[in-house]
Amino acid sequence: MPENTPIKVDASAFMPVLIQIVTKLLAMAGAFLVAHGLMTEDQVNAALPGAVEQVVGIVLALGAMAWAAYRSKRSNDQKLEIITSPQTFVPTSVAVVKEKGHTTPPGALAIPVLFLLIAIPAAGLLSACTTLGNDVRLNANKAFYTAQIALKSAQQTTLAFCSAPTKPVAACNKAIDLLNEGAKAEAAGFTAQQAGNAADLQTAVTTLTALPSQLADLGVLEAN
Amino acid sequence: MAKMTETEALNLLVGATTLLTQLAVLVPALAQNLAAIKDGLDDDNADDLNAKIVTAHAEVQVLNDRLQALRSE
């Protein structure tokens, strides 16, 4: 390929999804700032469209560079053209968030949710692996211990955010109730694990594995 | 962004400081938890792991009590 031929990367199909994800994440971050009194809702709403555009632009540029380097072995002086679809660049969800008049932003739960999305699938994957392992007790212990620590992380995170004077009360109460169910499942799992009751332990690990999506629903669905 | 008064600016600083204080405790704790998970996965001794499970059980239940105390009606 001649060096001066620009590489074209068509990102238009991917853009609506990207904009949706970035808008949601930034709206959650904004809601978090509002919840902690760091910015007013109007300030966040005013800053959001520009921020979404910038972040989408950065992600697109980085993604296209990586893609072009991977696919075409682009040389340093070769131009890169990113084909976008500007008509989708309307962050309507900002208006939607405002219209729905959220007074208890769910953004305070963004960090625990992110953490859990990483931590608990590990437990889920692991519990699936226990059937393949040679040492059933060792693998069951690994699965349960991972689930325990993931639960502990969720508890610590919720404790930190819901101790703030400006906490979103409704979301915090829901999170605390869910974590109470988690603690009960953990106690049942502990009894089963100590007694060597594999079936009950599996039930407990399954309950704990379902917890993050419930917490995520609490944080994300309210932003929709 | 709209102009803010001195009081608003001070409140902003106080809020940011509170948040940073919380994060300063929380982030290392979460990092420690990830390390604990990794250690647990690398552990080949079921009895060792059992001891860790007993400790984690106690910690989880204490944290749950603290959360329940925090719940507002």
Task: Record the SSE blueprint.
The complex is a heterodimer of chains A (224) and B (73).
Chain A: E1 7-10, H1 15-35, H2 41-72, E2 80-83, H3 92-99, H4 110-129, H5 136-162, H6 169-195, H7 198-220
Parallel strand pairs in A: 1-2
Helix pairs in contact in A: 1-2, 4-5, 4-7, 5-6, 5-7, 6-7
Chain B: H1 6-42, H2 46-70
Give the number of DSSP strands of chain B. 0
Average of the residue pLDDT scores of chain A: 64
Largest sheet of chain A: 2 strands, parallel
Distance between the termini of chain A: 46 Å
- Give the structural class of chain A: mainly alpha
**Radius of gyration of chain A, whole Å:** 22 Å
What is the average of the pLDDT values of chain B? 80
Q: Please give the count of helices of chain B.
A: 2
Element-level helix/strand string of chain B: HH
Q: What is the percentage of strand-forming residues of chain B?
A: under 5%
- Which percent range fits the helix content of chain A? over 70%
Task: Write structural notes for this entry.
The complex is a heterodimer of chains A (224) and B (73). Chain A is 71% helix and 4% strand. Chain A has helices at residues 15-35, 41-72, 92-99, 110-129, 136-162, 169-195, 198-220, and strands at 7-10, 80-83. In chain A, α1 packs antiparallel against α2 (41-72), α4 packs antiparallel against α7 (198-220) and α5 runs parallel beside α7. Chain B starts with 5 loop residues before the first helix and ends with a helix. The model of chain B has no long low-confidence stretch (mean pLDDT 80). The chains are: A mainly alpha (224), B mainly alpha (73).
What brief labels describe this structure?
heterodimer; A: 224 residues; mainly alpha; B: 73 residues; 2 helices
Question: What can be said about this structure in brief?
Answer:
The complex is a heterodimer of chains A (224) and B (73). Chain A has 224 residues and is mainly alpha-helical.
